[in-house]
Design goal:
Two copies of one chain form a homodimer. The first copy, chain A, has 398 residues and is of the alpha/beta class. Chain A is 38% helix and 15% strand. Chain A has one domain: Amidase signature (AS) domain (Amidase signature (AS) enzymes).
């Protein structure tokens, strides 16, 4: 790993695929998380035994092809947490990418290398995936624009899926204008051709945040509120966000246990203990264990869809903690993961789009992300908001 | 791996330590499972992250030093299942040793490389460890003499311990005479200077065996019975041996979870899924979960100590199944493990010595081991029996 590569790319020969000569992304470079197929190569998914037991891809993944067709050039494949199971960006096989904005701290995951590559200036755009927070967390930790789109909006064809009812294709950029342009390439038209009229500040989500996060976000709230005709403080989860989190975790676990069961049984793959434990505990769950979770998810979707039908957007910290230090213990990792999912579960359970805005930092320069969650299909409206806010919010040095 | 090395030795530079010029083992070669310290080297314990996070040993392990002092020369360190957690001999990091007697089948574990090295004729003796069956299973699968001594008889100093109340130092040989000589070096005097007067055939243990195992063992039973003044068929476990097995498993799990907890938490090591899952599930156990297991163990020890106080020995198949094929699924591995522990738990729970006698095989030459369990401290009596039986039992070609 060189100092300027941030350990972002998958080890091995360089990968490059030229984009179309013309198009909205002509001349831009991009990278794709190593969960996306690149024709002719084995998609490694962050685990050596996955790579060993899978053959080369015949076609580019849908999202890769779309960016190439729009003129962007693929410059490499980026490191992911093993089979995308992780939120902190540690990979015990391929190395943990560096967080260019906070080198002593973790980059966030599972789209760790994509975030490192964009934050480190190696590429302009990177594709990631987000099932439980895997774009939102690293974009917050590395100070990037990042989106988890409406579930189902971008096809997952050619992408390693993990938890189909949660999996999404997302992306990272350093600037709001590129963020918007890439969205125009990957998304269709919004379901509502509307700009949001109301900002809902989720006070219970803010209450979960550590002081360092709250204090970094507080100064930007007046600017944020000022661009909305109406603002309201709300309590999102009467039952408590930790209850939401447990619904998300169980539902995601039963899905990824099913996804990987046959491969694991046939190949007895190697995993870091953290990942092996998740898979082992997930395999204990039965449909009966998650019946109540499914009912809850249906209810909360209806409830939040109604809430955002203004059209409104919901504001919350992306992550309630600062990026953890690189050498934390497993127990501390589990604690951090629990804290994080308490907030990432909101878009996860509802399937709603969420963007991270890199518009705050601690006094010593550690990025702190603010999130907006939009209505179902309101992805482009969120990107417009990002552009608007980039003009008025206090800026973080690029 | 060369055809004649059977993948038995730990990858890396050759290891050699000359034995004393004179002594009962002068001129013999031996190998030690990579759980035993060799001065100046890092004991790898079958896992790359164990090796990475531990420093070199200052001294030889007690058993290694004892063999050197008796004149044997150390020729190498042998592959083990990761941190000794396994009974089949698969190692997803360093490779799975070949079973020289049945190359399509697993060698058994966790002392897999020690068994392969002796069965393949690379060394005369090899040290192994046995907590849940790790000498008995590979000696049965590869057609060797093997002993799990009385618990506590051989010091575990300088050996990676796993489950202290189960861990033992054992060894493998191809012949009964070397088996006895090594025992004289490693053991003190027996607690009873007696030869057994009674053979107890554990019919419930034989009933757990597959037909291929039973049929291979049946022809040798008359010779075995003929050397004892008295013989009796008994049912060992009124509650069923599968109940004994679950007591063994829980007690062993809570011990190895405690042994490895801190190291795992600090280093998030990589494991094959099989091993990671064992550790993850073991970590869920509490003292309350095993309270009944502890009581049971105390009761069964008293009961079996009384039974063997004749002095008597107990006869059973070492393993109720043939060595599984090398490429079996995880589900089949778990099933095989469960079958095996149904018999290995007997000496495990009681702490009594057990030897494997390599005196049977299937019609196509797959080894099938017969076991004798002796009274507490009757280890040398067992080795004498092995010598006696080697003279009268139907012989398997060496």
């Amino acid at each position: 790993m060189t100092d300027t590569a941030y350990g972002a790319f998958v080890p091995g020969p360089a990968v490059q695929a030229a984009g179309a000569v013309t198009g909205p992304l002509a001349g831009l470079s991009f990278a794709a998380k190593d969960l996306f197929d690149v024709a002719g190569l084995v998609t490694g998914c962050g685990n050596p035994d996955w790579a060993r037991t899978h053959g080369p891809a015949e076609h580019h993944a849908w999202a890769v092809q779309r960016l190439l067709d729009a003129g962007a050039t693929l410059r490499g494949r980026t490191i992911t947490d093993e089979i995308s199971l992780g939120l902190l960006g540690r990979n015990q096989f391929q190395g943990t990418p560096v967080n260019p904005r906070a080198p002593a701290r973790l980059p966030g995951g599972s789209s760790s290398g994509s975030a490192a590559a964009v934050a480190g200036g190696l590429v302009t755009v990177a594709l990631g995936t987000d099932s439980g927070g895997s774009v939102r967390v690293p974009s917050s930790f590395t100070g990037l624009y990042g989106i988890r789109p409406t579930h189902g909006l971008i096809p997952v064809d050619g992408m390693m899926t993990q938890s189909p009812s949660f999996d999404t294709v997302g992306f990272f950029t350093r600037t709001a204008d590129v963020f918007q342009t890439v969205g125009e390439v990957l998304f269709g038209e919004d379901t509502l051709p509307a700009t949001p009229v109301r900002l809902l500040v989720a006070t219970d989500a803010f209450a979960t945040a550590d002081a360092a996060v709250s204090e970094a976000l507080r100064p930007i709230m007046p600017s944020l509120r000022s661009i909305f005709p109406h603002c309201a403080d709300i309590t999102l989860a009467a039952e408590g966000l930790t209850v939401w989190r447990e619904h998300q975790r169980r539902l995601q676990m039963i899905e990824f246990a099913a996804t990987f069961r046959k491969w694991i049984d046939e190949t007895n793959p190697r995993f870091s203990f953290e990942v092996g434990r998740s898979l082992a505990l997930a395999a204990l769950l039965t449909e009966a264990d998650v019946a109540a979770d499914r009912i809850f998810r249906g209810e909360v979707r209806s409830r939040i869809d109604g809430l955002l039908d203004g059209p409104s957007v919901l504001c919350l910290p992306t992550v309630p903690i600062l990026p953890p230090l690189r050498d934390i213990s497993l127990a501390a990792m589990a604690e951090a993961g629990g804290r994080i999912v308490t907030l990432t579960c909101i878009a996860g359970l509802t399937g709603l789009p969420q963007i991270n805005l890199p518009i705050a930092e601690t006094p010593d320069g550690i990025p702190v992300g603010l999130s907006l969650i939009g209505w179902r299909g309101g992805d482009r409206a969120l990107l417009s908001l990002a552009a608007t806010l980039s003009a008025i919010a206090p800026r973080v040095p690029a």
